[in-house]
DNA sequence: GTTAGCACTCAGGGAAAGCGAGTGCTAAAA
DNA sequence: TTTTAGCACTCGCTTTCCCTGAGTGCTAAC
């Protein structure tokens, strides 16, 4: 059976109406929305075809039609109008971005919050590294006999530090030498090689040194591993309950649990595309089988990619969400994608 | 009217049954649970008294009685059996605590998660400082012409650091001198005095220096202000929806929104007591008027206090929650309350 | 002070009925 | 071959009504 232009048009009407109202749409209502005069009986014939082809479904015999996941997919791929944002909408995004974010660490979390207020669906945000992070530099600072500060500068320009205490007293003068040793042996190598290297040194240094080196290398290993960016932030998760499809408390709980207490398993992009959409059953997690997710990514610095995901019912407003989210992600890249954060601007100056 | 021993006994039975089943309890059922033989008619007379005194209420005329907030309060203050944990329960807590937490920064978040699995109600966790945090020490490390690392050690032993870039190139040899200057003028003073002090120095140093000092002092100010511990973590928030009183989606949404997207406003202890309980309308936030909160705090290091809160319906199992939570908080204090984190123990050794 | 007895209240559940939106099919018209 | 009008049929939803049973308050007797 062929998917005629008219069938597509009908599908588009059904999808957009359902996105708007969450109510099935009947042949008569469709006929009224169609340009030209066509009878509802004709529409019914078309609807029967569309159902047979799998683009539409019926909640029950005497109800109107609603889109199937396949129908949404066609809509997203072909039918949806990818209208760019109006200048006003763009201005709103640029305004909210201006002067807000300063520390790299905060960018991710705030970006998620801003996206949520932009699209009015729950969002989540995370970041990951394009290539492996390594340590760029170590520095040990004296505090007292048994404690010192370890400063670790990472290849992505983050700097982490911690106060450490050891059991045996350490000669303060030894710290620079140890820093040097760390810098020559433990920079620019992946975490998994660190322990081996440390073992290789174990008989060349005195126990006090080894104690210190061990602590510092451990610490660096931790930093590289879960490099602080596996953390996922969600915003506005409870909004999911305002959608009629999640008025059912058990469904709502399932999804809330996933978004709030199981964030780490929210989907991440599987392609390099700037935007990816997962519709209903296309999701791997069971909890999301009745939801859709729109994901966009943006650059942070040279070597990091931020992720923003939008979660909604399958009938979410793909056109609007996609338009706003992609513009937002582009803006973020424009702002944070370069090497370094821009210097703080003077308030109110051009 | 007097609150006789028998009345208290009846109240206790009603509260505990309602905590267990969430169903109102009638005179006949109470009569069966009472020791000795008393007729339901007698119980009815007592119930009428208890209602009149405000300890019990009726959902509707032909239903049994349920406790009022005042009833719960009396129960918590006088009637509840504060049984200590069994050795098995204590062991379970100690086990889960062993070897888990290392970095001070993670203690708070993990403590909340562990508490949630312990009590099986949603929990939240935060920390705050007993007395104001100040900077204990500054350290500036050279990176290149226009960038350097600022390391700031705080009075609570946290160490924070960040890479900074300035517009004018800075003589690397000047950094130690600037560190010295910062250490002499900006340590041990509250954040609000910093800016004034910086202004006082503005005509004594060259512009390049001022640029650097400004950035560092700004950064320190930020650290002291929202000192990274206003952050609130929640665990198991979605569990709230399993309770029958929150099967209503709107109620559930209200509470979820509060716990997930508005965590910062969750209640904090108002007294120094080791444990505080807020019952229903005793809560200030509207969103919590139909819930109860049990809060406990514990020490982290010398100068910080961790907070764990448990959120549940007003009929939450106060006795169990209070017992477990207070033991857990005590254990945490025992473990982290001292000056410094204990050295990492060897696995499997006594 | 306690108890038995009785009339009364009221939420919840189930059955029955009516409504109305929407369908599929048929046969005629274009 | 496509479109249309017409019609019988389906089925979820809502409303109404009734019944049941748990529980109450009150009274009068123990």
Folded structure, characterized:
The structure is a homodimer of 350-residue chains. The first copy, chain A, is α+β, with helices and mostly antiparallel strands. Helices cover 43% and strands 18% of the residues of chain A. Chain A is built from eleven helices and ten strands. In chain A, the strands form three sheets. Chain A has a five-stranded antiparallel beta sheet. At the A-B interface, strand 4, strand 5, strand 6 and helix 10 of A face strand 4, strand 5, strand 6 and helix 10 of B. The structure holds a DNA duplex (30 and 30 nucleotides).
What keyword list fits this structure?
alpha+beta; 3-stranded antiparallel beta sheet; 11 helices; 18% strand; DNA-binding
Quick rundown:
The structure is a homodimer of 350-residue chains. With 350 residues, chain A is of the alpha+beta class.
Largest interface, counted by CB within 8 Å of the partner chain's CB: A-B, 38 and 37 residues
Q: How many helices of chain A?
A: 11
Over all CA atoms, what is the radius of gyration of chain A? 27 Å
Oligomeric form: homodimer
Strand content of chain A: 15-25%
The strand count of chain A comes to 10
Q: What is the arithmetic mean of pLDDT of chain A?
A: 89
Following the backbone from N to C, one meets helices and strands of chain A in this order, namely HHHEEHHHEEEEHHHEHEEEH
Cα end-to-end separation of chain A: 61 Å
Inertia-based shape of chain A: elongated
Low-confidence stretches of chain A: 340-350
Helix content of chain A: 40-55%
Q: Structural class, judged by helices and strands of chain A?
A: alpha+beta
In this structure, how is the largest beta sheet of chain A organized?
5 strands, antiparallel
Strand order of the largest sheet of chain A: 7-3-10-9-8
